[in-house]
Amino acid sequence: MKSTVYIIFLCLANFSFILNDKPNIEKAPVTFQSTLDSSQVPKAYELFSFADSVIGVHGYKQAVDMLLRYESSYSDPMEKSMFNQVMMTYLSYAGDIKGALQYEAQLSSKKQPESYSFAENFVIEPANAVIKKRSADRQVVMFNEAHHRPHHRAFIRALLKDFYDLGFRTLFVEAYFENQDPQLNERGYPIQNTGTYTREPAFGEMLREAKKLGFTIAAYDNDTAACESTEPFVCANQREKVSADNLFNFMKNNPKAKILVAAGYAHIVKKSDDGWIKMAEQFKNVSGIDPLSIDLVGMSERFTGDQENKFYSSANKQFKIITPSIILDKNTQDAFLANYRQEQIDLQVVFPRTKYTNGYADWLATGYQKEITVNLSETNYKAGDLFQVYIKSELDAEQKQAVPILQFPLSGQKQQKLMLPAHYTYQIMVDHGTSKTNVEVGVK
User: Between β-strands 259-264 and 140-145, what pairing exists: parallel, antiparallel or unpaired?
Assistant: First the structure.
């Protein structure tokens, strides 16, 4: 676990910028007791495992509430930084996008007042069209993500149909652990034990969509060898090598295969500037295959505008970014890359700032057609309680192991509108932290 957290810290260090309505029927809440001993303060990195165990028994809201009880316990800068990373992760699981970005903001100081102006030869193009065109003749395409930003997973999910049409059939996911959940591909949807980050709703929906289209989901990040070295980058490079070798071995056994790889942060960088030799570079060296590396991290919003890098701020000002876009030199067709060189990354997506159209992030509904309206006027809840949407068949089969398709904190609304995939029946719940309420609704 310590080596895994060390890698998380390295990654973040590199992130520099980095229905017909029916009356609702409220069922009796189910209550439970917390077993937390607040007199014992764990190391901050241990909170990852702690929060996972709480989610599996008590749910997402209780996990966040319990984590918050520890916030004042960490004064050491490294421990405080790790606690912030924990909060970023679990607030993103809960659909609290603003909350996750607020904790992210504590990891770095406000930017220096800088300005930047794109030259006239730069234009923007829709990211999905550019990526589809440039992936057509590639055998391996790699995306990265920030682990606390569901927007990146929702973006990849929306591209999966295009990739399937191009002949891609295997999706390798850093966060999936096959030994924990060997039935994922047969079952077709994630559960709480599937892996790290896969319990976040947008990640889970990315996996569901992949299976629905016909992809095989595969693991590649399974370094199980102990590494006790204190030398810089030794343990990091070991993990990168195992990942690269796993991908290479798959390609050796399937020489005509076309694969997608969803990784975190810097793992998709193809040329290092230091001793940390990333997975993509090691894969390229051992396989001879040049992957198309697509950065989703460097040009994303921050909690406040004065924490955004000058390139992102300028792109939004000059180009009025309203949909994920790629900035191209219209003469050379080279992509503009903030903080990367052409030999490191091929494309970089610029994301628009989030709008909260129906109380939750608008990008979570990309491509969905089923409209659901939920009347909450008869449901007692407090601001911050989680509005949860489960696929009913999954909830019936998995109970506490089920991963919601959507959830976000409520803020006083009495009627909630949703846009969801059309091919499921849903169960709505409100997670109060110490209890849950089921809400039955009609669906158009």
Answer: parallel
- Enter the DSSP assignment of 197: S
Residue type, 64: V
| Burial (Cβ within 10 Å: 0-12, 13-18, ≥19) of residue 185 | middle
Question: Residue 163, SS3?
Answer: helix
**27 Cβ neighbours under 8 A, 6+ residues apart:** 437, 438
The bridge status of strand 325-329 relative to strand 292-295 is: unpaired
pTM reported for the whole predicted model: 0.91
Tell me the per-residue pLDDT of 197-231, one tens digit each, with 9 for 90 and over: 999 999 999 999 999 999 999 999 988 888 989 99
N-term to C-term CA, the chain: 46
How confident is the model over 144-196, as pLDDT tens digits? Answer: 999 999 999 999 999 999 999 999 999 999 999 999 999 999 999 999 999 99
Domains of the chain: 2-18+38-105 (no CATH), 122-350 (3.40.50), 362-439 (2.60.40)
- Taking only the tens place, the pLDDT of each residue in 374-422 is 999 889 999 999 999 999 999 999 999 999 999 999 998 888 999 999 9
CA-to-CA distance for 332 and 346, rounded, in angstroms? 13
What does each C-alpha distance from 179 to 172, 183, 192, 251, 335 come to in angstroms? Answer: 15, 9, 14, 21, 39
Whole-number Å distance between alpha carbons of 442 and 21: 5
Residue 16: which pLDDT band, with cuts at 50, 70 and 90?
very low
Q: Are 54 and 70 in contact (CB under 8 A)?
A: no
Residue tagged 């080596």 (tokens): 3
